[in-house]
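$ ./design --mode recover --in tokens.txt
reading tokens...
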């Protein structure tokens, strides 16, 4: 079936819950998109350390997979690295922190804010400007930033931060304040780079880690995250949130924070983990485009046939739930988290998700 809408028309219709020619689609293909450039041999290290390569991957990936959105997700060690943690950077694997900068209680308090234009934060800001400009007439673009609590756990280890929330509360707050100040500068930089949206990774809003009270105190809409969400709006960008936790704080992160787009995962083996139809049925798509929930590991492990089947099942589930709720299009068929940026990810599986939505994603209630 011929496409009747452009990517941008379809995304805007979905944001407004207006009729679409088919559902929007966005397997979160970011780092892996470098493999669609030229002969496909660009390493992850080359991709994530150069604004030009980073942007080129996202631009090329959008065209190759024909995606409705483009999100500039890099990896979760960017800010910790720029603050002085040591990041292990292999050629082809996702980099990770192997020596966090915060080791003592004093370290939380003396944390120094780096220049956001330098380091990999600088790569993101400069690269976002390039891809946002190149794709502004093609897709809805979004910058991507790690939230304050995630920046802190990456800089100190999650175990340490969760213990210090009780034992050294004020030190933890001091560090969160420093990260929030830094992230406000990053939001200003994002505003100048001009993507349509800015997406936060708020993955600690998860009932398997923190209750409502703790999340409100250490990130929440009335705390650090709230001021950052507001800053995004002031810079003229739409608010988007990614949280691939098993038990996400949907009331806080969807109903209170009011993002335009919320991307989530689903863990079928964990009791209470909300599926796409649960989330739609409970009203979380009433004012927000929900995205999810294909298992990212499927892009490595599954055959193309299995990926098609999973995508078809999700489309069916989403259509039924949207119609039952009286909604027309406020859902994006997406992966629950980033498609693994490894060399073992099957590019044909990413394409399969996109093609299957084109074929079977029409909503008729
Ligand atoms: Zn994720």
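writing sequence...
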């Amino acid at each position: 079936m011929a496409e009747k809408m452009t990517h941008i028309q379809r995304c805007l219709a979905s944001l407004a819950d207006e009729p679409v020619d088919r559902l929007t689609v966005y397997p979160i293909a970011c780092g892996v998109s470098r493999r669609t450039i030229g002969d496909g041999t660009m390493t992850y290290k080359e991709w994530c350390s150069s604004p030009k390569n980073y942007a080129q991957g996202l631009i090329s990936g959008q065209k190759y997979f024909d995606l409705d959105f483009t999100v500039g997700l890099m990896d979760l060690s960017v800010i910790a690295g720029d603050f002085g943690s040591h990041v292990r950077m292999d050629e082809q694997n996702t980099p990770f922190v192997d020596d966090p900068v915060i080791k003592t209680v004093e370290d939380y308090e003396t944390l120094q804010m780096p220049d956001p234009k330098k380091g990999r934060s600088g790569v993101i800001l400069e690269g976002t400007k390039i891809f946002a400009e190149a794709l502004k007439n093609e897709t809805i673009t979004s910058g991507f930033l790690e939230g304050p609590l995630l920046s802190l756990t990456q800089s100190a280890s999650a175990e340490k931060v969760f213990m210090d929330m009780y034992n050294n509360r004020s030190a933890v707050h001091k560090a969160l304040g420093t990260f929030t100040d830094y992230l406000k500068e990053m939001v200003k930089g994002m505003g100048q780079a001009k993507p349509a949206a800015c997406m936060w990774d708020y993955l600690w809003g998860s009932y398997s880690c923190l209750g409502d009270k703790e999340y409100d105190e250490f990130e929440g809409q009335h705390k650090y995250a709230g001021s950052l969400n507001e800053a995004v709006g002031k810079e003229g960008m739409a608010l988007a949130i990614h949280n691939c936790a098993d038990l996400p704080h949907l009331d806080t992160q969807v109903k209170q924070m009011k993002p335009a787009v919320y991307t989530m995962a689903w863990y079928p083996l964990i009791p209470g983990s909300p599926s796409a139809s649960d989330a739609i049925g409970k009203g979380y798509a009433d004012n927000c485009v929900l995205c999810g929930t294909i298992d990212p590991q499927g892009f490595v492990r599954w055959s193309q046939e299995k990926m098609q089947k999973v995508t078809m099942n999700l489309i069916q589930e989403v259509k039924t739930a949207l119609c039952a709720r009286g909604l027309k299009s406020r859902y994006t068929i997406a992966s629950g988290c980033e498609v693994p940026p490894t060399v073992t990810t099957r590019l044909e599986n990413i394409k399969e998700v996109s093609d299957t939505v084109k074929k079977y994603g029409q909503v008729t209630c």
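exit 0
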